[in-house]
Structure to design on (226 residues):
């Protein structure tokens, strides 16, 4: 068990470009979560999956954001037409739906939009 | 989920106990208290959770008042590596809503 992994760890892009992040959860974890964290704030929930089904989406997830988990394993988060306000740390977490609500977080992907 | 209130920052001397308070005066009977911490440039890490009894694990102890309106996370012998932001979260155990609701937490600085 190597923990939740996220790639890339850092991404610098220009405004208007599209970016995609990947999250590999702990194996056999059927729930996967995406959060966004800006400087000085706690993480804010974006969306979560149970297996391949996207069960909940925050109002923070504008139509420029899309998340997928096609085979119920890894997940991708894509941001289209990035804006400077999208600069943040994007965190992924996973757990089993039978767990005591403990979520296991990855190291995050830091996005900087210039 | 109930709202929590934490001091923005605290200092602690290395080797001493760190006591981090959390107020959750609107907690409901079926809501648990969870603690996570986030070391700089890392993702949050689960520490401990409890309903009404005091809990202890290898990382920390959780003391919940009898009326459940507040709690204290205790790190018995703080080390420099315990410097982090500590988040107190209140939520229904096993609720259908998946997300954790984080506040700004308490930034704990352990000093030599």
């Amino acid at each position: 068990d190597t923990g939740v992994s996220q790639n890339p760890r850092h991404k610098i892009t220009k405004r208007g470009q599209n970016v995609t992040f990947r999250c590999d959860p702990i194996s056999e974890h059927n729930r996967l979560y995406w959060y966004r964290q800006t400087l000085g704030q706690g993480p804010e929930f974006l969306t979560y999956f149970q297996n391949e089904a996207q069960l909940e989406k925050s109002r923070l997830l504008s139509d420029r954001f899309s998340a997928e988990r096609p085979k119920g394993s890894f997940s991708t988060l894509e941001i289209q037409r990035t804006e400077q306000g999208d600069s943040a740390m994007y965190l992924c977490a996973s757990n089993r739906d039978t767990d005591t609500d403990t979520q296991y977080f990855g190291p995050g992907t830091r996005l900087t939009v210039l | 989920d109930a709202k929590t209130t934490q001091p923005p920052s605290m200092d602690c001397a290395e080797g001493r106990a760190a006591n981090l308070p959390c107020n959750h005066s609107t907690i409901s009977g079926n809501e648990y208290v969870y603690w996570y911490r986030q070391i700089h440039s890392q993702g949050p890490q689960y520490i401990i959770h409890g309903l009404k009894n005091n809990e202890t694990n290898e990382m920390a102890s959780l003391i919940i008042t009898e009326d459940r309106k507040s709690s204290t996370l205790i790190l018995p012998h703080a080390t420099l590596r315990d410097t982090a932001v500590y988040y107190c979260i209140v939520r229904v155990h096993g609720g259908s809503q998946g997300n954790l609701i984080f506040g700004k937490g308490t930034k704990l600085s352990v000093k030599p």
